[in-house]
Each structure stands twice: as C-alpha cells, then as structure tokens.
Design goal:
The chain is an alpha/beta fold. The chain is about 40% helix and about 15% strand. Strands 1-7-6-2-5-3-4 form a seven-stranded mixed sheet, with helices on both faces.
C-alpha cells in the first residue's frame, strides 16, 4: 500500500492471554454449551499468564533504542487489551510525554452477537441453522444476529487507518487489539482478498502478544511504501521464557 502519509513504523499486537481464553478452553474440553464467564466480553481481564506475556513484550520494547520505540499507542477499549497496553507502556517507560496512549473503539473485538459465550457444541445445539449458514457463507461475510462479519470489522478499520495516516504520519505507532483485528488490518494493509486472508487464518491463530509490523520505505517515485516487516514475531516471549498461547477468541465452530 503506497501513500506519502504512513507512520514510520507500525506494530500490531494481539493482547495477552485472557481469562476468557482459559474459560473457553475449559468449556470446550468439558463438552459444555456455554462458556462460564462472570464478565461481559468487554470486561474480561488478562490471565496471570497474560500479564507475564505483556510484561515480556514491554521488556522487549524497553530494549529498543528510544529513537525506535513507539511514540503513539492505539488500543482497543476492551479490558484485556487495555491491560496489555498499560503493562507494555509501563515496562518500556512509554508513558506521557514519551508516548501517547489513546483508546479507540474501532479496535474493539469482533462482536459475536447471539453466538457470544457459546462453544462449538453450544452453537450446534442452540443454533443449528445458523451454524449451517455460517459454514455455507464463510466467516468473511457471515454476520450472526446482533454481531459482525469480518467485512463489518474491516469497514470500521478503514476509517481507523485513514486517521492513522492523517494524524500519525512519519511517527512510530503501536496498535494493541484482538486476533480478528490483526488479520483484518493485514487484509487492508497488504491488499489481500477473502481467499488469501482466510488461508492465513486457517494456518493458525494469532499468538497472544505476537507482533506483526510494517516499516515505511521510500519507493522509486518518492512515496513511502508500507512494507511488511514481521509476522507473529514471538522472540519477546521466548527470550523471557514465557509460554506462548494461541487460543482463538471465537468459538471453534466459527473457524472452518
């Protein structure tokens, strides 16, 4: 993607492991229909491991020279993403005035609507017709009642990217959000199509606190080109001997 207004560096990070990921794994392995969570999805916090992952990521950013660290942090308003962003900022000393942290609702998790908190078994049991429709249409276009399709997420991210190019040109920007956000931003930034992004998604879930990054490079016509630099980079966790987790944010029935 070419433009003269890209950030100098753009990092996109999935939040650390959440208590919701842990509860979902327990429900799936136990053959339950509903995931036992006391919180709204918006309020689900990090697990203890998710906190350790976020700290490891912050320590990695702290090891970068100040001239290479993020100047702006854009974050989903969901609690697990906010915790991740704050821990990273604190560990790397990327707080005001060194860096600005800004919440943006366009980075929120994909909304699951009527399928929220259901396991694969729960979806098949409670909404068999929707399950069949989802498998027929595919996740890119399927919108559960009260929820969003990937296309809906991409639509809100288009305006976010426009804002980034307008307000943060030539700056270093860190985005902290969710798995679907990471993939949908890759779809936009790399000019992918439905088949290409779903193939990337099928290859595996985005690991918690993994980094996907882009770097602005000068093209032959003197425009800046945003070039893919890292994909699901996990060295920060491995260097800190912190376990890597890849649990999906969505029920496995919704992942063909």
């Amino acid at each position: 993607m070419s433009t003269a207004a890209w950030p100098r560096q753009l990092w996109i990070v999935r939040h650390g492991q959440s208590a919701g990921n842990v509860a979902r794994d327990a429900a799936e392995s136990g053959g339950l229909a509903v995931i036992d969570l006391a919180w709204r999805d918006i309020d689900v916090p990090l697990s203890e491991l998710g906190i350790r992952q976020s700290i490891a990521l912050g320590d990695w950013f702290a090891g970068l020279p100040p001239r290479d660290q993020p100047e702006v942090i854009l974050c989903s308003p969901y609690e697990r993403a906010r915790q991740t962003a704050h821990l990273v900022a604190e560990r790397a000393r990327m707080t005001e005035p060194a860096a600005t942290l800004r919440l943006d609702e366009r980075l929120r998790e994909k909304e699951f609507g009527i399928l929220d908190r259901l396991t694969k078994f729960g979806i098949q049991q409670k909404h068999p017709e929707l399950n069949e429709q989802r498998l027929h249409v595919g996740k890119f276009y399927f919108r559960p009642p009260g929820g969003e399709s990937w296309c809906d997420v991409i639509l809100r991210l288009r305006s976010l990217i426009e804002m980034i190019t307008r307000e943060y040109s030539q700056r270093r920007v860190l985005v902290v959000a969710h798995q679907v956000i990471v993939n949908c931003m890759r779809y936009l930034l790399e000019h992918l199509d439905e088949k290409q992004i779903l193939e990337i998604d099928r290859q595996g879930d985005v690991p918690n606190c993994a980094i996907t990054s882009y770097r602005a490079v000068r093209s032959h016509d003197d425009d800046d080109v945003l070039q893919l630099d890292l994909v699901n980079f996990l060295a920060p966790l491995r260097e800190a001997a912190t376990p890597v987790t890849t649990a999906p944010d969505v029920p496995s029935a919704a992942k063909p």
